[in-house]
Write a structure and sequence with these properties.
alpha/beta; Aminopeptidase; 2 domains; 5-stranded mixed sheet; 15 helices
């Protein structure tokens, strides 16, 4: 399940704080010694600039990191049931730089329909389990091996297949692998004193146990697990769940990186116990070098993003499964561009999310309801709605986005969503806001002239999200950061 990958960020950041607060290196060694290390698999050895790429995997498992079944009490607390699963329901690729600038965590939705090398096309969360089962069957039924002895080899085969699949999709060679199950996320969250989250609306969803009021609140471990596991009754289903995972990780990473949380011996001991029981790491990590690298990051940010998608409610090639459609070529290009921005330290661009920009929309045409329709399109894309109405000031000769500065990041984002409208500087526009002026030449989203139904602009956001995603224009990914500000509120 989701946020467990926060673990490596939390653990990693934890180790960095340990170093920064003067805790002895021996403590770090003992921290690491009880973690379950797996034998080396198909991994890289770091980039030329010293950056490392870590694959964080959240398992929908009912065991701890050492294969011990969870107790009935733990299963009940986690609302996990007793189903046995090897699905990897959270997959995040993290680039940790060597230059002290922002790290980047890239989420891959669990239903992404991808090509698994040597396996074929399938949902990415099933790659591990499919190869694991195939290998286990081969070893037990064909080779006559005892299942307990075969299990580690089957796990290794599943992990290696997932690593190769992520590399094939993103173009990034994985250097380290980290895995955690349901219990681990709850334990680590509790060890860190809970997590602060913010909801746009109150939610009640019995399947996951999510029952939370609107606004800011602090969740304990089991509550946080319900928060990140919910995907029913959300506007965008699993994609909104990914956003929740990122919000939780951003909040925890910020707390760990920016505070003295881990200078407390009791907190550190609790975290050590949680990690040692719940985390699996690939062997071969130099913990000293890793902690030193993370120490450089302590003054920086962690940016969280999701790969671009083509269709969030698509179908597999055989028409049998509902999947998230992605374009592998575009994903590779997008990942390369994002990581280059990280390397260049473009933190302002990385930190931008649409909700930071308030958008006023005015209608300079005689088309009734055009401003409201376009405003709704932008609201569905995550921008904060401002005022709408007819243009009562000077008329314009062409549709445009007005902002206090032409290089305003929010204005650029709005322009892109509306088909590349020109940006015009206007000192009367307040900072943090933009004004969209729609003239008779406007044919973009919400106009009814872009090939879509204009009535979609006033219906459920999930419907608009699906309608606006086309095979040629993968949906952009909002980015959250674990910087000095609180993460954005989420669905």
């Amino acid at each position: 399940m989701p946020a467990r990958m926060l673990r490596v960020i939390a653990v990693s950041a934890a180790l960095a704080i340990v170093v920064g607060t003067g805790v002895a290196w021996g403590k770090i060694r003992s921290f690491e010694s009880g973690i379950n290390h797996i034998s080396p698999i198909a991994l890289g050895d770091g980039g030329e600039d010293g950056a490392i790429d870590v694959l964080l995997v959240g398992m929908d498992s009912r065991t701890d990191a050492h294969g011990n079944p969870l107790s009935e009490e733990e299963l009940a607390t986690l609302r996990a049931g007793d189903d046995i699963s090897t699905n990897t329901d959270t997959i995040i690729l993290v680039r940790i730089p060597n230059n002290g600038k922002s790290a980047t965590a890239i989420s891959i939705p669990r239903d992404s329909y991808v090509e698994a090398p040597g396996v074929g096309k399938m949902k990415i969360n099933g790659v591990y389990g499919s190869v694991h089962l195939e290998k286990l069957t081969e070893l037990v039924e064909q080779d006559g091996m005892d299942q307990a002895q075969a299990e580690p080899q089957a796990n290794e085969a599943g992990r290696e297949a997932l690593i190769k699949t992520v590399a094939n999709l993103t173009g990034v060679t994985v250097d380290h692998y980290a895995e955690i199950g349901l219990l681990g996320f709850a334990l680590i969250t509790d060890a860190l004193g809970g997590v602060n989250v913010c909801l746009k609306d109150a939610v009640y969803e019995p399947l996951s146990g999510a029952d939370f009021p609107v606004g800011w609140q602090k969740l304990d471990g089991p509550q946080a697990l319900s928060f990140v596991r919910q995907r029913h009754d959300l506007p965008r289903g699993d994609l909104d769940r990914v956003t929740r995972q990122q919000a939780v990780m951003a909040s925890l990473a910020h707390d760990v990186i920016s505070s003295k949380t881990l200078s407390s011996p009791s907190t550190l001991n609790s975290l050590q116990e949680a990690v040692q029981r719940s985390v699996v790491l690939s062997d071969g990590w130099d913990i000293m070098d890793f902690a030193e690298q993370l120490q450089k990051l302590a003054a920086g940010n962690v940016a969280f993003a999701t790969i671009p998608i083509l269709e969030e409610a698509g179908w597999s090639d055989d028409g049998m499964q509902s999947v998230v459609r992605v374009d592998p070529t575009h994903v590779k290009e997008w990942v390369a561009s994002l990581l280059q921005e990280q390397h260049e330290g473009k933190t302002e661009e990385l930190a931008y999310v649409p909700s930071k920009t308030t958008v006023d929309v005015v209608n300079d045409t005689d088309i009734n309801g055009l401003a409201s329709a376009v405003s709704q399109v932008l609201t569905n894309k995550g921008f904060t709605p401002g005022t709408t109405g007819n243009n009562e000031s000077r008329h314009v000769t062409g549709s445009q986005v007005q902002a206090v500065k032409a290089d305003d990041v929010g204005a650029q984002a709005v322009s892109k969503e509306l088909g590349g409208l020109p940006i015009v500087e206007d000192a009367s526009v307040a900072p943090g806001s933009v004004r969209v002026v729609l003239a008779g030449d406007y044919t973009g989203p919400g106009s009814g002239l872009d090939g879509s139904d204009p009535t979609l602009a006033t219906v459920d956001p999930a419907a608009v999200g699906s309608a606006d995603s086309t095979e040629s224009d993968p949906a952009p990914s909002p980015i959250l950061t674990a910087g000095s500000n609180d993460p954005e509120c989420v669905n």
